[in-house]
Design a protein that fits this description.
Layout: E1 17-21, E2 24-27, E3 32-35, H1 38-41, H2 50-62, H3 73-85, E4 90-94, H4 97-113, E5 122-126, H5 135-139, H6 144-147, E6 157-160, H7 165-171, E7 176-181, E8 184-185, E9 191-192, H8 195-208, E10 211-215, E11 239-242, E12 253-257, H9 278-291, H10 294-315, E13 322-328, E14 331-336, H11 340-351, E15 353-354, E16 356-357, E17 362-365, H12 373-388
Parallel strand pairs: 3-15, 5-6, 5-7, 7-10, 10-11
Antiparallel strand pairs: 1-2, 2-3, 4-12, 8-9, 11-12, 13-14, 14-17, 16-17
Helix pairs in contact: 2-9, 10-12, 11-12
This protein binds pyridoxal-5'-phosphate.
Amino acid sequence: MSITPLMPVYPRCGVRPVRGDHCHLISEDGTRYLDFASGIAVNLLGHSNDHLIGAIQRQAATLMHVSNLYGSPQGEHLAQRLVDLTFADTVFFTNSGAEAVECAIKAARAYHSHVGNDDKYELITFKNAFHGRTMATISASNQEKMHKGFLPLLQGFKYVDFDDLEGARAAIGPNTAGFLVEPIQGEGGIRDASDEFLKGLRALCDEHDLMLIFDEVQCGVARTGTLYAYEQYGIEPDIMATAKGIGGGFPMGACLATEKAARGMVIGTHGSTYGGNPLAMAAGEAVLDVVANPEFLAEVSAKGERLRGRLEQFIGNYPDLFELVRGRGLMLGVKMKAEPRPFVAHLRDNHQLLAVAAGDMTFRVLPPLVIDDSHIDEFMDKLSAAAASYDPEAPAT
Ligand SMILES: *Cc1c(COP(=O)(O)O)cnc(C)c1O
């Protein structure tokens, strides 16, 4: 047999982490890495946060899981907090980002179907988006590399250029149910939507009675310096998917909606065995305890500004290698003039620095939100050394 016991769908690198220590990861062979990847924007509180660990340990010893057939004091409490903190009136808890987006897609279709408009099922989505790896969420993305081998796709998605309001307007037709958009594209290369674009989508939705769905799976949960990125755009979605950082490393997600948007999500329409179980709720509560706090959020913005300023100054030394820095808060991207993957491998293998490659020639800088200036210094030192020793022509390790 030549297939590996772990289904070989990931191009896994040689780093094999076995332990976390705040903003560092320690591999099987004892090497210590500065983790500016955070499990792809997941470990908001770093790897050994006492508050999160304590909450999970206590809840694990009290009650890990019960069915959604029973009342959920734990779920009600966290849902109420999210309702109080956001645009939403109601929350469905999931175990991942893709499931949160799935719920959002179903809610948008059900919104129209509920009043007999079964023909309004189509979502307009945006090129180079990433919404997850289930059949519906790959269908929502135009990226053919995710479709190959899995056809036929789910029907009902139309792809338009990101940040192109006129294109979005022109794509509206008799079957349109709404828009699904990442306010800041993550996998697509840390590309943030313009104010005019998101405000324009909001206006189109109001005008045509369409659902505006934000996928904040990557940019949400304090990553950009506000609890959710939409707050910075001065508008609100009807439905929003959140996950990644929301459990701080515990698998968890949520679909948030207004009362109006959730009108079709009535008894029997949706479900999940694990979604919202007490253990996940304890993790979610612990993360919110830390991040849903104006001082913490202001710190994320300030650290993001400092890191961005340092990065911008630094890339000026290497105009042949780097093009620009973009993003918000601690969701930053460095657009390169060469393929980012070999450079990310060089950072990792030769300088013990973890970052994440993304689309559009960009690598992502997604540190835990609890970094301090010493981590920013360490990051800049490693990045500078890596750029100085980088040979784009050398074969990747
Ligand atoms: C990661 C991601 C998802 C998918 O989340 P999973 O937990 O991997 O299912 C969806 N949307 C965006 C924007 C993401 O970054």
